[in-house]
Each structure stands twice: as structure tokens, then as C-alpha cells.
Amino acid sequence: MRNYLRHPLAAVAAALLLTMPFVGLFVLNGYHLDPASSPENPHANITPMMAVLVGGLAILGAAFLLAWAAETAEKDVPTAFAIAVLAVLAVAPEYAVDALYAWQAGANPGPSEAANLAVANMTGANRILIGIGWSGIALFTIYRAKRSGDSAVKQRAGFLNNAVTIDRGISLEITFLLVATIYAFFVPLGGGIGIADTLFLVGLYVLYIGIIIRGDVEESEAHVGVPAYFQEYPRGRRIATVLFLFAYSGLIIFEAVHPFASGLEELGTSLGVPPFFMIQWLAPLASESPELIVVAYLVNKARSTAGFNALISSKLNQWTLLIGTLAVVYSIAAGHIGTLVFDQKQAAEIWITAAQSLFALAILANFEISTREAVALLFLFVSQVVAEFYVIQSTTEPTTANLSILILYVYTVIYIVAGVGLFIKRHESVRELIDRTTLNIRDAMGTEPKNPESAD
Predict the structure, then answer these.
(1) Whole-model pTM?
(2) Domain 2-455: assigned CATH number
(3) Can you tell me the distance from the alpha carbon of 133 to that of 356, in angstroms, rounded to the nearest whole number?
(4) Alpha-helical runs (H) found in 301-453
(5) CA 423 to chain centre
(6) Model confidence over 113-132: pLDDT tens digits?
(7) Rounded to whole angstroms, how far apart are CA atoms 325 and 199?
(8) pLDDT digit string, tens, across residues 7-23
């Protein structure tokens, strides 16, 4: 019996079982959080706490299935492409939430609360990914290295000086993310998110995918457990398994995040948390949870390199596809090509999100992130959210709006000054970053002999 429990398929079965309560309650039986949404069966609703529990377990189980699928796929496709697929599926719920608000805004043209909510949810998700995701995973990696012996962690003397080294092969993603970040500063100047933004940002991501998919299937890190077991399957059976795991986990994550986030919002409302604040921070935190679970799993296996690659890839697709598709959904709902118009507060939210991204990329410019830098990212994120929450709770309009915008501007300046300063200080690393990206592009286009060591 003990041998059966140790079999890799036992872990797969356990992950699938975690998703079953959600499938039973929400998919098969049609349970709802709101009794009014099911008037023909008013007893079909469940409590917010139950929704959080069942949805959370489903997300957890699906996240493991998603991680195993991505690791198994590394045998047949370039690792960067497998991670890009993982990143898109893991943040798919965030796309769904934002698409809903963009659609509502398009159905009611002109400045609307729905348009502001779409931007707020998008900027909240992006800042959570860096403020909690990048910093938290870096700190977790450094902590785990004491036991796992992760070779990616550099042990250094000095206060909070240990660091996680980043794979130099991620140069392409960092450079493309930097281009998207610089472009994002100009988005509010156009009065909203329009089709021109869609063409640039989505085009940038398509170009990125076109480059990485032309890469070779490199020799990936040695796997253990479930991925190693599936990689021993014959190629046809292995690919079918990967596609099933991607499809099933993606569908579960997509479906489970809504009741999970709604349950959190209901609990937040009962505790007196403002609805707009919850949509910007609580709902995105729920939708980002699959990605964070996947990365924590990889780090726990001493695969911090793959973990950070997934985080950076997620940020890239959110900062390009997520923003770019908002105008498309808005235009479809409106029945004509239009611009998703938002207010001054959301313009400030986009600027601080771009500034945070700039600072985070400056940190990674030398291909590592130290404990001190991770703490700085986390502190700046948390302090800004706490400061704004205090203002919302302690003041009334219009003072609240004015103070909130002032806080956003102050933190935007802090991020930009710190980021530009680091880029200047690390100008040699920036040059290496650009050189490596150029080599990657030439290699993908077949205009440069393959020589990965030439950039070292």
C-alpha cells in the first residue's frame, strides 16, 4: 500500500481529488453564492466561506496539474514556450475578470465605473505580481536554499545580501517587458486604452512568441516525480497527457477563481472593506494565486530558475495581452472601434504600475535579486496599499480621491528615481542584456550562428 502512495500517479490523483468538490458543487449541481441568481432553487446557494474553501482547493489542485504539464512539456518544446503557456493559463482568470468589466463599459459607452474597474483590476493584478510575487518568491527561494542547496542562490556576507541569480536566458523576456513598460507610460496620454495600444502591445507579444517558438528544444533540468514519470511515456501519449493537463487545469482555474474571488469579496464586505478596494486588490490576489502556487512549487523543488522565468513571463503577457485585449473587448461590446476611457485616478494607477515595473526590471538588470531588493519591492508595495487604505477609511470625498492620487504620484516618483538610478549604475549589465536579446532574435531568425557562450 505504501508503494502505491509513493507512485507519481497517486500525486496526480490527489490533485484531481482537490478539484472534485468544486466540480460537484459549482459545475454539476449549479450552486451559487447569491440566492437571487438561482430563483428556481433558492436553497442551492452556499456560504462565502464554503466558496473560498472549495474554490481555493480547486485552484491548488489545478495549479499542481498545470506545473506538472509545463515541466513534462519541456521535453518536446522550448522551455521558454512551455513556461509562456503555463503563464497564460495561470493568469487566465485575470483576463476573464477584466474582460467582463471592459464588456460592461463597451455596452454603456462613455466614461463609466466599469471602465475604471477594468483598469483598477488590471493594475492591481500587475502590481501584486511584482510586489508580492517577485519579492515573495525571491525571499522564499533564499529561505529554502538553506535546506535545498539551490545553486541559484548566492550566499554573501552582509546584511540581507544573499541573492537569487536569474537565468541569463531570460534576457529576451526582460527586454520585451522593458519595452512594454516604457510604452505603458504613454497610454494615459491618449485618453484611454485604444486600438493603437492593442496593435502595439499584442503585436509585441506575438513577436515574442514567434521568437521563442523557433528556439531549440534544449536539454532541460533533470526532473523527478510526476514530470519524470510522464516524460517516459511514448511521445504521442506524452503529448496527449500534457494537452489534457493543460486543458483541465486551465478550465478549472478559469472557472474556480470567480466563486473564490466572490467569496473573498463577500467576506471582505462583512468586515467593512470598501468594494472598489476589494476589486483592485482582493480579486486580483485571488486570480494571481494559481501562478504564485505554481512558482512556489517550482522553488520548493529547487527549480528557482524556472520559477522566476514563469513570473517574468506572466508579467510580460499581463502587461501586453491583458492591456491590449481590453480595447478589443470594449469595441466588440460597443459595436464599433472605440477607446476604453478612464478617469484621472486610473491614469495615476497605470503610471505607478509602469513605474513599479521599471524599478523591478532595473533590479533584474544584473540578473539577480538580493534579499534587500526583494524587501524593498515588498515594502514599497505594501506601504502604498496600506497608506491608500487608511485614506479611504479615514477621509471623505473629494479629499479621499485627491489624497489617493497624491499617494500614487509620490510612489511613482520614488519608483522612477530608484529605477533610473539602478539602470545608470548597472549600465554594463544593461548592455549585456541588450546584446543577449539581439543574439536571441538573430538566432531565431536564422541570421546568426548558434553560439550561446558568445554573450558571456
Answers:
(1) 0.80
(2) 1.20.1420.30
(3) 13
(4) 304-317, 323-334, 344-364, 371-394, 399-425, 427-445
(5) 24
(6) 888 888 988 999 899 999 99
(7) 9
(8) 888 888 998 999 999 88
